[in-house]
Amino acid sequence: MKTTVSAIALTLALASCASPPVTPAVAMADSSPAPAVPAAYRAPRLPGTNIPDFNGVWRVMNTANYNIEAHPAQAALQLRPGPYVPVPAASVVALGAIGAVPAGVGIVQGDGKIPYTADALAIRDENRAKAVENDPEVKCYLPGIPRANYMDKPFQIFQSDKAFFIAYEYAGAVRNVFLQDPGEAPVDSWMGQSYGKWDGDTFVVEVTGLLPDTWLDRSGNIHGSTTKVVERWTRTSEHTMRYEAEITDEEVYTKPWKIAFNLYKAVGEDAQLQQFKCVEFVEELMYGHLRKNPLPGPALERAMREAEERAREGSN
Known about the structure:
Layout: H1 2-17, H2 22-31, E1 56-59, E2 79-80, E3 87-88, H3 118-129, H4 131-134, E4 155-159, E5 164-168, E6 174-178, E7 193-199, E8 202-208, E9 228-237, E10 240-248, E11 257-265, H5 283-287, H6 298-315
Parallel strand pairs: 6-7
Antiparallel strand pairs: 1-4, 1-11, 2-3, 4-5, 5-6, 7-8, 8-9, 9-10, 10-11
């Protein structure tokens, strides 16, 4: 009797340790729901309309204003030959690490290089060699498009169903984006003429009439007198926007090329522009040599140099 009970108990114990049948497990896996596909983001609308709302303060978190092409960190924007490697130019050496250039992945699409003609590339290289002296940003000139959108200072979009206006912190620059075709720009200007229309939830803006005097960054990259920029602005989340632009100019580039980057919406106390009307900040740089008694430094050196030139011309 004890033998029979022991055999029954052993059989039950072995059965409880056996692996479960494979078929039901497979059936459970096959019947589980497929992963959900994220729905495309739908931007908030202007009240009472179906127009995406772009209002707010926006800014980049990249280093494109130093160089829109990919670049490593370097000691300064303007360099001179050193005993072993290039060193900062004399005019900026006192800035030390403050004057250094941070690395950047670049915003130029495709192979990451601007497709310059040979002549335009030579101009870019000459600009780069004298970047601190010649960059229009140094003199507080208006930045132009697309550069205004990736400078290190924010901008604010003011939008309604009848208007689209952008105010930039740098130099008080502004853009009024026409929502009806204004025709050809009557005159070239620093910020050009902007005409926008909607392509679904993307705001497409055509910018023409740009002065060729503006640079694309602090590294001497340029555009020409016939440049056309086609921007595409698309909200991608509550606090992000994708900016893309195609740049065309047969005088300067061998083919059209594109840039793209993300914009980030400021919140809280950061969601406001400050003043940076920098004209007064460069008065000494641009006009200091005209003082009756120029201050020591570059202004005095320039005044003395120009006085010597006038004396030579007078003697001739």
